[in-house]
Amino acid sequence: MKCLAIADLFIPAEMMEEGLKKLKDCGVEVTVREWKHENLEHLQKDNLAVEQGGSEALDLPESLLENISEFDIIITQFAPVNRKVIEQASNLKIIGVLRGGIENVNEGLAKERGIMVLNTPGRNARSVAEFTVGLILSEIRNIARSHAALKKADWRKEFPNSAFVPELEGRTLGIIGFGNVGQLVGRFLSGFGMRIIFHDPYFKGESSFPNVGLGTLVEESDIVTLHGRLTEDTMNLINREHFLKMKPTAIIVNTARSGLVNEKDLIDALQNNLIAGAAIDVFDQEPLPENHPFLTLDNVTITPHMAGSTVDAFANTPKKLAAEIAMYISTMNEK
User: Fold this and answer.
1) Which pLDDT belongs to residue 48?
2) For a tag site, which of 11, 21, 115, 140 has the least CB within 10 Å?
């Protein structure tokens, strides 16, 4: 079997080669090509276009599709495997996606053609969960704001939440989306002595934390953190209606997808002190334009879409996917 692996700036060719060794050990001939971008910002821009618009939002350069009909397997992280790719890859049997979702794959066409789509759920769950905890602490304890002020020689001690800066013990954390990331965040912050509740209508497992209604969660939580998938059903899941129900001392954290929160409603809630603050890693426009309201607000901590970006997450993902594909190939050969 032949495999085309599409590397990028986050998982470069050398890392991809190293991570897919298990496929080579199974007799798969691996070819690595690079989806080239001038810098990470341009790659993130293309990735955001695909996340928001689906696999058909972008076409790959022809250089990546050369003799693609020869390949049985395509492995990608951010590069879209859309109708054009699938139609040209006439021998394709497996699409491997180096990410938790498969937004960049035309899943309907793949299914229609009997192509197996495999991905790596939870591949950067720990990275995102650890970052989420960092954002929470930064926002409620004014770490980023005081750092920025002190770099300007301003010994700042007064902040929008100075009257009610909390400790985490005894406070309520509300987790929206209780998959790999949400469960890790709950585990980490239960260690701080927090009361944990979550909302996830699709959760089928067992948990010592209660699964509550969305209204109950936003009303009771001191911190609301989002870790769900962006779908038609979850678009603008959190909006003005929910900000009006939240405690005025509460904060909201989003390290998942920008569309889960109505950004305009969030800005309005922050400007009018409906909630105490927010910590945001994902945005409707990336990078943020120079005149964006988030840049002027003093009750928000913002970071440039970096929650999942650790060397461990990127390096380990090809290894995990290679093992899964190898197992699938073994099963195919036994039939």
Assistant:
1) 86
2) 21
Q: Count how many residues are written for the chain.
A: 335
The answer to whether residue 257 is catalytic is yes
Q: How far apart are the first and last CA of the chain?
A: 16
Contact (CB, 8 A) for 110 and 86: yes
Mapped onto helix, strand or coil, the DSSP state of residue 124 is coil
Among the listed residues 257, 263, 292, 334, the single catalytic one is 257
Structure tokens at 169: 């013990």
Q: Rounded to the nearest 5°, which phi and psi values hold at 185?
A: -60, -45
Ranges of beta strands (E only) in 124-180 are 172-176
- Whether 42 is a known active-site residue: answer no
Phi, psi of 310, rounded to the nearest 5 degrees:
-125, 150
Q: Which of 286, 292, 324, 334 is catalytic?
A: 286
pLDDT greater than 90 at residue 334:
no
Q: Which of 80-89, 272-281, 289-298, 322-331 has the lowest mean pLDDT?
A: 322-331
Q: Is 29 a catalytic residue?
A: no
> How far, in Å, CA of 13 to CA of 35, rounded?
10
Q: Is the dihedral of CA 289, 295, 300, 306 positive or negative?
A: positive
Q: Residue holding tokens 């759920």?
A: 121
> Residue 260: exposed, middle, or buried by beta-carbon count in 10 A (0-12, 13-18, 19+)?
buried
| DSSP one-letter string for 46-73 | HHHHHHHH-GGG----GGGGTTGGG-SE
- Residue 90 CA to residue 176 CA, distance in Å, equals 40
pLDDT-derived band at 116, boundaries 50, 70, 90: very high
